[in-house]
Design goal:
single chain, alpha+beta, 2 domains, 16 helices, 6 strands, elongated, Rev_trsase/Diguanyl_cyclase, diguanylate cyclase activity, membrane, transmembrane helix, transmembrane
């Protein structure tokens, strides 16, 4: 068992089982220790968290994984003095919720289980609803009077807690980014970006302070504002904060006035509040999910508009715009810039000899070769046909020429296989133009300078680098020749 490795996730199976057992054990203890005496827990997080884990990590959902989870829950109950038969039955109810919710969510493709579409939220709602219904039904089959309540009260108490807890917790775990993405998220927000959060906090304070049946609706406008401004994962955290705050506040206020004579009224009010809060958070979640879909679509449209469909590099319009912005920054920061114009030698002959399909593959392969050699802040785009351009910030003439020569040699020695097994060699000609720190010229002038250098490289036999340098006025000196 120790030697077995999960091929998909690279984790030993034993480590997966230990993780499941500890999570089930510790989360069950958390729910038990926060449970009022003689009542169900205010929050029972273990079911929602483990369901989210199994959906995020399907490799954990093995028969042995399910059994280990069940044993972890039972161990927690036994540790706190629960009788074994009752512990087995109650945790079988918990497992039924996880299994039912897992089965419902499996109806969605795995790519859509991360809350990226409103449809996923509706499935999550159905999974939480059906799972809570199954678990609460099983809970009353063994004992008609759980914690001295009537059957219907016991059923509703279990159902309302599990349904609301799942709707609050499960979206967080399904929408959570991976650890690397989470660490890259900005921490310092500008004041304007924090206004929706401040509005939500103030609305929560007012809802707790004022109280009453309408208080649970106070945070809704602020939550909707957050849904419009923030990422989906952030919204799930805020809905969790809102729901837990309101349920805890209502429960605390009710406990102050609870007596044996009004116990049922206490439960009825708490159950109603749980269900109402669970329903209220659905609106902001669906709105945030819809906006996330629209943002993703807009990014795709923007990428299509700004990038060449064949090579994936910047299109001419986007390259021109970004290069102009870079020049404006250069004038303010007094930094040097260099521009490389690149032309694939005898490209028309390649099209005529091998066909346009091969020619397109040559363009894509060339762009891939060059892109691997550039930094993220260096602009690379296609001007049209077989002509490309690279804009280098903070690059003196010698640095621009050095990169151009490196690319020329790399392309020359690289075998391309655009049509199959037969290798194809290509070469490039490069014209380099640079602006020193104090030079001020337009992008059009810089392009003309690089074009003159490129023309010289092609007229001198191709497969070479030529550099243009302004010495004085309009005079030109050829300073690099290879």
């Amino acid at each position: 068992m120790n030697a077995r490795i999960n091929a998909r996730h690279g984790l030993p199976v034993t480590l997966q089982l230990i993780t499941l057992f500890l999570l089930a054990f510790l989360l069950s203890l958390l729910g038990i220790f926060t449970r009022p005496i003689g009542s169900l827990s205010l929050f029972w997080p273990v079911n929602a968290i483990l369901l989210g884990l199994l959906l995020r990590k399907p490799a954990y959902a093995t028969p042995l994984g399910w059994l280990t989870t069940y044993l972890g829950m039972i161990a927690a109950d036994l540790t706190t003095g629960e009788a074994l038969p009752l512990a087995m039955w109650l945790n079988a109810c918990n497992m039924s919720l996880i299994a039912t919710g897992y089965g419902v969510m499996l109806l969605l493709p795995q790519s859509q289980r991360r809350m990226g579409k409103p449809q996923a939220i509706l499935y999550m709602f159905t999974a939480s609803l059906s799972g809570a219904a199954v678990a609460s039904t099983l809970s009353i089959l063994r004992n008609d009077s759980l914690y001295n309540n009537t059957v219907i009260t016991a059923w509703l108490a279990w159902f309302s807690e599990q349904f609301s807890t799942n709707l609050l917790l499960l979206p967080v775990f399904l929408a959570a980014p991976r650890l690397k993405q989470l660490l890259r998220m900005p921490i310092n927000w500008p004041l304007r970006a924090g206004m929706p959060l401040l509005a939500l906090l103030f609305s929560l304070i007012f809802s707790v302070y004022i109280g009453g049946p309408g208080a649970i609706a106070f945070p809704i406008p602020a939550l909707l504002w957050c849904a419009v401004r923030y990422q989906l994962f952030t919204v799930t955290l805020l809905t969790l904060l809102t729901g837990m705050t309101e349920i805890s506040s209502i429960s605390a206020n009710l406990m102050l006035y609870e007596t044996p004579n009004n116990h049922n009224a206490f439960l009825d009010t708490l159950m109603s509040a749980r269900l109402g809060i669970a329903m209220l958070v659905m609106g902001p979640l669906i709105l945030a999910s819809s906006i996330a879909v629209n943002r993703k679509l807009m990014r795709r449209l923007e990428h299509s508009a700004n990038h060449d469909f064949l090579t994936g590099v910047l299109a001419r319009s986007a390259l021109t715009r970004k290069a102009g912005e870079l020049l404006e920054h250069k004038y303010k920061s007094k930094e040097a810039v260099s521009l490389l114009l690149i032309d694939i030698d005898h490209f028309k002959l390649i099209n005529d000899t091998h066909g346009h399909v091969v020619g397109d593959q040559v363009l894509a392969s060339f762009a891939h070769i060059v892109r691997r050699e550039l930094r993220h802040d260096q602009l690379f785009g296609r001007l049209g046909g077989e002509e490309f351009a690279i804009m280098l910030p903070r690059a003196l003439a010698a640095q621009g020429v050095a990169l151009a020569e490196h690319l020329r040699q790399l392309v020359q020695k690289t075998d391309l296989y655009p049509g199959g097994k037969t290798p194809l060699k290509i070469t490039i000609s490069v014209g380099v133009a640079s602006l020193a720190m104090n030079e001020v010229k337009s992008l059009e002038q810089l392009m003309n300078m690089a074009d003159i250098a490129l023309y010289r490289a092609k007229s001198q036999g191709r497969n070479r680098v030529e550099s243009f340098n302004v010495v004085s006025g309009n005079s030109v000196e050829h300073i690099m020749f290879r």
